[in-house]
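MAGE domain-containing protein
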Amino acid sequence: MPSGSRKRRAPVEAEDESEEEVQNTQKARRRVPEPAESEDGEEDDAQDAEDAADADMDGNENGQDQAVKKFVRLAMACEFGRVPITRTVIREKVLSNSNARAFRRVFEDTQVQLRTKFGMEMVPLPSRDKHLLRDKINAQKTNAKSKSTQSYILTSILPKAYRTPTIMPPSTVESPAAEATYIGLYTVVISLIALNGDVLPDHKLARYLERLNADQMMGNEKTDFVLKKMERQGYIFKTTDNQGDEQVIEWHVGPRGKTEVGNRGIKGLVTEVYGQNAPQDLDKRIHSSLGMEVLTIEEVERAARQNNREDQAEQGESEAESEPEPEPEPEPEQRTRRNRRG
């Protein structure tokens, strides 16, 4: 009996072993493609990420909408701190160093959003005028040409009837009263410089501010500190020239001062100061002092705004043309000729 039972158990154990081998081989077969699947999955994920990045750069709807929102927030934040919106910051914060075509599309869509929803638009900042002789000589040596606009600021496009303190109150950076005082002071300083031919010696500006009691207007802040603040924000800038043993310091209107205040603000300030006692030829005097033709300031600004838009369009076209275009694929006949030559 024991021998028979042993003979019968042997095939059962063999069958169990064969079944285990089959199961193991099946498991092994199932496990073999797993690494390949994971590799394929990683490659697919990487490819999807690249495709998504390319789609965002090339102007995908979702990606471009997000870029426009980022651009609007960036423009608002820069204007709140009176910081220029530079192209370098735009590429880093909005476009992730994308190409020029993406910049042009996002910039145009951002302008539409700013104009239709916020009543503002981005305008290019002009470059500083070169007043010193050495700066003019250096510019001639380097053959400096007009470069593309590198910085912008926000300006209001609301009609004059809506530019009232009720609709456009002063910002609450510190307090509305302090902000309104600061706006009034830098408007006065810019007007004094512009009406003196865009060159005002330092001692004359100090005398004007002393007569206006500027120290009392700015509270605890000293006049020198306020002037440095205006210079840092681009409203004014000074040049220092050594003429023998004498140091000559002169003040000029900065890029932000020309764009934000401009001739319209200067004319409005002068007209408000004269009031009802303004002479009949006041407009001609203002135009003569500002070096303008006898045109209304609105016409001059309208023409300047149109020129700025045309310049932006030309810059966008030139940047797009500067990008290398892919070579066209050869036609079938050209391919056969090349193959025969090979």
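thats it. Residues 15-55 form one domain. Residues 1-7, 10-15, 32-39, 49-59 have pLDDT under 50 and may be disordered. bye
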